[in-house]
Design a protein that fits this description.
15 strands, alpha/beta, 24% strand, binds iron/sulfur cluster, binds S-adenosylmethionine, 354 residues, globular
Length: 354
């Protein structure tokens, strides 16, 4: 069983109006105090016996905005297994060869780039600051520094994105020969500026048209779908993603970070100010927790495993497979897997199966 660490960096240069992550674009002045608190929290955990980790994921926010040396010092505190995957999420416009070299020296071996689209007017519609050229330059830098693997994050279904725009984005992204791609349908997150502007909400039919186009293009480029929204050249699947989907244990560090230990889930206080204050006064940063019972764990397992290529174990299904799911799911050995059509309806199918 793998064990992972998640490190949260809550800063962005400009907040995208579709994003609901715990991140701020007006708190850069907290960076020093935050990185100090993060160092302290990780150090305390290591000193009190934190197990060696099989994967580290530094997410945000925009981790590539903070001083890479400070981030490297935090990463260096964690004891790592030999095969440990260490990923840092980066915005294409903050990636430089010198930044990546510092990461590499700190043991980072995988970069995840927030690309979203390769079409300028779609990026503008999403409120992104970077241009497609930044992505090309960032990938060149990733190759030059010699990372083992990298990921491109794409979003489909933004307002004003035609099918041809999406095809163009996919072609340009694939031309960069990424070993891993995540493609998420734009979701309307409650409380975001996008949520208030109904004229820019994504259309379900449009997203349903775009998903199979992406899947077919990725598969013909050798990227295998291993979870509904994730494709990889075999051997480049994200260890950290797999750990979450397999309900394995992980420890989150930083504000708003979530942790899991054998069915107990807990999450840290949301704001960086409160987090810094609590760490400084040597108090717990835990905000709240929940413990899942065996049935809840099973339901969640079905939901997560069904999204994966291997599918959900038939033995986990409380009532078998209802006949109306014909064509949407398939039995393979002792597992049930989604068909390509089924992948578009994963949430509804999970509800029917439980
Ligand atoms: C926390 S962001 C980190 C990467 C980096 N900050 C960036 O955006 O370039 C991780 C990914 O979440 C995805 N994401 C965020 N909000 C989303 C939304 N409302 N719908 C779909 N994907 C979203 C984006 O693809 C983004 O790259
Ligand atoms: S999508 Fe990325 S850059 Fe945009 S606000 Fe969210 S975390 Fe920041």
């Amino acid at each position: 069983m793998d064990f992972g660490a998640y490190i949260h960096i809550p800063f962005c240069s400009k907040r995208c109006d579709y994003c609901a992550f715990a991140t701020w674009d007006d708190k850069a002045d907290l960076e020093n105090a935050y990185m100090h608190a993060l160092h302290t929290e990780v150090n305390r955990a290591v000193e009190t016996g934190l197990a060696p980790v099989d994967s580290i994921f530094v997410g945000g926010g925009t981790p590539s905005l903070v001083n890479p040396h400070r981030l490297g010092e935090v990463i260096a505190l964690l004891k790592k297994t030999e095969q440990c995957e260490v990923t840092v999420e980066c915005n294409p416009d903050t990636v430089t060869v010198s930044l990546l070299q510092v990461y590499r020296q700190a043991g980072v071996n995988r970069i995840s780039l927030g690309v979203q689209s390769m079409v300028p007017h779609v990026l503008v519609g999403l409120g992104r600051e970077h241009q497609p050229e930044n992505v090309v330059r960032a990938v060149e830098a990733i190759r030059e520094v010699g990372f083992r693997s990298f990921n491109l994050d794409l979003i489909y279904g933004a307002h004003g994105e035609s099918l041809d725009d999406w095809r163009e984005s996919l072609q340009l992204a694939l031309a960069l020969q990424p070993p891993h791609i995540s493609a998420y349908g734009l979701t309307v997150e409650p409380g975001t500026p996008l949520a208030k502007d109904t004229t820019r909400h994504p259309d379900d039919d449009d997203q349903a048209d775009k998903y199979p186009i992406a899947d077919a293009m990725f598969e013909s480029a050798g990227l295998q779908n291993y979870e509904i929204s994730n494709w990889a050249i075999p051997g480049h699947e994200s260890r950290h993603n797999r750990l979450y989907w397999a309900q394995e244990n992980y420890r989150g560090f930083g504000c708003a970070a979530h942790s899991h230990q054998s069915g107990r889930r807990w999450w840290n206080v949301r704001t960086p100010e409160r987090y810094i204050e609590l760490v400084t006064s040597e108090m717990s940063v835990e905000n709240s927790s929940e413990t899942l019972d065996a049935n809840q764990m099973r339901d969640e397992r079905v939901q997560l495993t069904l999204r994966r290529r291997e599918g959900a174990a038939l033995s986990d299904l409380p009532h078998g497979i209802p006949p109306e799911l014909d064509g949407l799911v398939q039995v393979r050995g002792d597992h049930v897997v989604l068909t390509r059509e089924g992948r578009l309806l994963a949430n509804e199918i999970t509800i029917r199966l439980l």
